[in-house]
Each structure stands twice: as structure tokens, then as C-alpha cells.
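REQUEST ID: PR-0412
SUBMITTED BY: lab tech R.K.
PRIORITY: routine
TASK: structure prediction, single protein chain
INPUT:
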Amino acid sequence: MAPAPGSHLARNSLRLRALEPLLWLGPALALILGVVIWPVVEMVRTSLMDISSTGVTRGFAGGANYAELFAEPDLPGVVLRTLVWVVGVVTATITVSLALAQLLNSRFPGRRMVRWALIVPWAASVLMTALTWRWMLNNFYGVVNRVLMDVGILDKPVNWLAHPAQAFAWMMAVAVFVSLPFTAFVILSGLATIPAEVYEAARLDGAGPTRTYRSVTLPLLRPSLLVAAIINVINVFNSFPVIWAMTRGGPGFATDTTTTYMYKLAFDNQAVGESAAMAVVNFALILLVVLVYLRVVRRREEIS
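STATUS: complete
OUTPUT:
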């Protein structure tokens, strides 16, 4: 027999029903709380503490860690280099992945093998990939110098990673290389969802390949491009193995980004609190870049 409406049992039953979604959302919320929220809170707390080189907390430091961080002479160059790193790598990755996804979406002999081969840089360890490229770029036994000398482009070996500009360009190329598989497959999945009838209608309207791609394919790929761009921004911003394995941010701080600079502050300078402040700044920069990107995408959608 059902409880009468308005009774104490009925009210309790309604409360229990209202709490039922927590049975399903609870594990996910607990995971987010433990893996995302708590580390961020702890990071901010650490950035406000006075911590010795041995890890002993000596009390509240207020904004002293941030003041020391912003007084670092290398910080402006590191931040600017990080922005160049993120914008350059993500832009190149998205551009090349669009072409790769379009190729892999077409039918040709051996397409399945090409798709499998594209997964290799993604499946392999990023650290091992970066180390392999470092060996390939070595000026004594690297295959890159050997090939360029054999074809007559170089007269003598070049120590590519000894010069900051060249090293940074090669690191960006390697970062694009390891980012391509994921991005290409995200875009490929978006291409697979576009109905063939849409292309048929475009052909009937007299649209050529270029106009069809610009007016049909790209607009329908916006959700996939948005996901790929945001995930790439976060991953590239926090990319540590490529830079550390190839140059360790050197010479000096000439090829550091905020991630490797943060590591050096903590382990080379023994400035744990300052490193935590750099982590907070890095986190804020990621949020800022993502929000700006979302704002630009939304404005373009409103205009179109």
C-alpha cells in the first residue's frame, strides 16, 4: 500500500528518490574530487607556504613565493616561449591532422595498414620517441645529418640541439609528430559521422571539392575540431618528456617552457614554494588559453 500524499513516509520516499542519482554520480564525483579538485587545492595551498629545501613547512608565506617567481629574470622568456610552443604545435597538429584524416577517410589499397602505422607514434612511449629523435639529431652519429650530407644539403654535421632556435624548432616538430595520431583519429571519427547525402546534395548544387570542403566538411567537423584542439592545448602545455629528453630546457633556460621551468625550480633550485606558484600560474595560463579559444570559436559560430 502506497503512503498517503503529504505523509511523513511519502516525504521520505521523495527524498530517497531525489538521492538516487548520487548512487550513479557518486563514484564519478569522488574520482573528480580526488584526482582533480584536491590536487588543485593542494597546489594552491603549497604555493602560499614557506617550504624548506628538505620539504619542511615553515609556516604561511603569503604572496612571497609569487613575488620571488615574478622577480625571476628568465620568467618572461619562458612564458612567451610556452605560448609560442602551444600555438605553434597545436596549429601545426590540427592542420596536418586534417589532411591525414581526409586521406585516411578515402578508399585506397592498404588503407587499414596505413591507419595501423599511424597509431605507432601514439602507442609508443613519448619519452622513448623523444630520445630516439635526440639520437637521430646527434652531430656525430645521427641519421638526420648523414642523410642531409648524402643528398648534398649539408657540407658538415650540425649540432641541431646546441642552438636554442634550432633545438626549439626540432622539439616542436617532435611534439607535432607524437600528437598527430590522436588528433587525426578524432577528426577521422568526425568525418565518419558526416552523412554521404550531404555531399551528394552539395554536388547537385554544383559545389566543387574546395567549396564542399570549406562549406560542408569543416562546419560539420567543428565539434571534433573543438575536442581535438582543447585536448591538444592541455597536453602540449604540460608536455614534459619531449623537452626534457631532448634538451632539458637548455642551454640554460633557452628552451624551457613553464613545465620544465617548474621542475627546475623545485629540483635544481630547491624552491618548492616558488615551483608551486609556477604551477598555479601554469594552470591559470591553460585555463586562459582554453577560454579564449572557446570564445573565439563561439564568436565565429555566431557570425556564421
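NOTES: The two ends are 58 Å apart (CA to CA).
REVIEWED BY: pending
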